[in-house]
Protein 1
Amino acid sequence: MPWLVHDGEVLASVEVASTRAERRRGLLGRDSVDGVMQLSARSVHTIGMRMPIDVAACVPLGGGRFRVERVMDLQPWRITRPSWRASVVFEAEAGAFRRWGVEAGDELVVR
């Protein structure tokens, strides 16, 4: 299983939503998030979700490296604005990115 790393510190396990069905489903139907989910997307929504989440919109740099464009707190029944430069998002439990110290401009690595 891959891991999300920030400044040399392992933050969480990564669940990659690689198929269209997995991306469409995302975290819907879950009551909690274990680790982070990686999706290829420019925008996400929480319509029908039971919980708030954190979203980091990222630009792929190659080699499993990503630059964070924007970090958002997203309540249920919301939609984010598209991030035109970002094409990958990481979704985590609400408050996770703040707790981990992840901000716009930071680099995340998936190993």
Protein 2
Amino acid sequence: MEISGIISAIVIGVIIGALGRLVVPGRQHIGILWTILIGIVAALIGAAIASALGVDDTKGVDWIEWLIQIALAAVGVIALDRAKAGSR
């Protein structure tokens, strides 16, 4: 992976993580770095799922791919928030 790919993964991860966090109701007790990491992982996994389903390259905006990535980020935010709440 080239440096431009890494930078774009981070930027997309920030956006996906933030959107995933916004979808989850209430206050989450995780930091911004965790949100970014969850977003990056969700973006990568979501892209792979979209590719497997054949919806990764459509005409215009790839809305289905974005929705998959945001849903995965929301699940990741909920899982980490609950894991941190359970450790308190």
Protein 3
Amino acid sequence: MANYELMVILNPEAGEESLNASIDGIKKLLSDAGAKVVNENVWGDKKLAYKIKWSETGHYILWTLELDGKAIKGMNSPFNLDVNIWRYMFVNLDA
């Protein structure tokens, strides 16, 4: 198990109910992949460096995880299919 950070930018205009559903979906994917969530840091709405879908803000969440790196590949499709997830990135902290 390696240490990773997962940064996710969500659509801030999706509404609280829709955002919570996307966040719960992410948490379920992580638990199904055997990830141990060490820390969850909700940054909330922040100004983006560049516009995404004509929006100047995004809803940021940062997770610190213990995760087998091979499990990340299986999470790409569900992340890409969720319309509220605008961007996401896994960073290996051990590298």
